[in-house]
Structures are given as structure tokens and as C-alpha cells.
């Protein structure tokens, strides 16, 4: 079992109201030093067996057709290594 | 200018209807070999100057108080290196 991650982010030229809302909230909460925030999506896909080039190509296709809107979003596909495999608290 | 990334994912024991919807859509679109999908959020924070330990601690605090709901979500904070700095198409 392996994990493939797809990160989907709004393109730089696209307005990102969610990110702007976070950016506006930070000073009110006493946080300083952050000049911009962009909010996107992260998908973690568990795939059967090893991650072959064929499977990666298939995930690229999923990212393009289902997980992102290529008009307004960019995406990145990568295999998550064991060492970094947990989003832990 | 440096970029700090915060990944926020639903905890493993928490139902993830968005991820389940994606998982259900994949076979209908002809994609096979994916056994589970989890959907979370990705925040890209641009910070002034170098990323100090103090700034990282501050971002951890932001993640805990504003960017995630610690009851149902885990988060990970890391500095994005130049090499991997673009979510490109």
C-alpha cells in the first residue's frame, strides 16, 4: 500500500477569498509576520501495491479531470515517502 | 521571503464525506487501483524574512487555533524548500 498526494492550489492570478479571510484574521488574533495566505486542497490517495509510472500517470489524469479545475487551479502529484507519511498533531 | 505550508487532514477515525465522494466517483470515471481517498486543506503562508524557530512556533499556534479544528483534524507544519516551491500544472 502506498500513498500518492495531490495538492491543488488556486492559480496565482486567481483571487482566493478563503486565503484572504485567513490573512485578515491573523493580526486580529495577534499573529504577525505573514504577508500572504493561499488556501487549497490536499488529497491523499491510497493505492494498491507499488506506485508505478502507469499509476502516477493515472493519478495525474484524476487530478486534471476530477480533483482540480484546471481553469483556476494548479496541481502537483507526488508519492509520499514513509518518513513524511503522517500529518500528525 | 519564505513559504511555510500547513497541511490539515481529517483524523483517521473521522468520517470524510468529501473523500468518500471522490473515491466513489473514480470507478465511474474509469480509474482503478485507488482504495481510499482523504480530502483535507493546504495553506501556503508567505512569511517575512527567514523562517526562525520563533516563526515556526507561531505558525504552529495559527494552525492549532485558526487553520484546523484539533477535535477532528490533524495538521503538519513545514517549510517549503525552493526546489519544491511551486504547485505547477
UniProtKB/TrEMBL annotation, chains A, B:
InterPro entries: PurS (IPR003850), PurS-like_sf (IPR036604)
Keyword entries, A-Z: ATP-binding, Cytoplasm, Ligase, Nucleotide-binding, Purine biosynthesis
The keyword Transmembrane helix belongs to this UniProt entry's keyword annotation: no
Catalytic activity: N(2)-formyl-N(1)-(5-phospho-beta-D-ribosyl)glycinamide + L-glutamine + ATP + H2O = 2-formamido-N(1)-(5-O-phospho-beta-D-ribosyl)acetamidine + L-glutamate + ADP + phosphate + H(+)
Keyword Cytoplasm found: yes
MF terms in GO: phosphoribosylformylglycinamidine synthase activity
EC number of this enzyme: 6.3.5.3
Pathway stated in the Swiss-Prot or TrEMBL entry: Purine metabolism; IMP biosynthesis via de novo pathway; 5-amino-1-(5-phospho-D-ribosyl)imidazole from N(2)-formyl-N(1)-(5-phospho-D-ribosyl)glycinamide: step 1/2
Gene3D superfamilies in the record: Phosphoribosylformylglycinamidine synthase subunit PurS
Main location (coarse class): cytoplasm
Compartments in which it is found: Cytoplasm
Superkingdom assignment: Bacteria
Family stated for the protein in its record: Belongs to the PurS family.
PANTHER family: PHOSPHORIBOSYLFORMYLGLYCINAMIDINE SYNTHASE SUBUNIT PURS
Subunit description: Part of the FGAM synthase complex composed of 1 PurL, 1 PurQ and 2 PurS subunits.
Physiological role: Part of the phosphoribosylformylglycinamidine synthase complex involved in the purines biosynthetic pathway. Catalyzes the ATP-dependent conversion of formylglycinamide ribonucleotide (FGAR) and glutamine to yield formylglycinamidine ribonucleotide (FGAM) and glutamate. The FGAM synthase complex is composed of three subunits. PurQ produces an ammonia molecule by converting glutamine to glutamate. PurL transfers the ammonia molecule to FGAR to form FGAM in an ATP-dependent manner.
NCBIfam families: phosphoribosylformylglycinamidine synthase subunit PurS (TIGR00302), PRK05974.1 (NF004630)
Protein name per its UniProtKB record: Phosphoribosylformylglycinamidine synthase subunit PurS
Organism lineage: Bacteria, Bacillati, Actinomycetota, Actinomycetes, Propionibacteriales
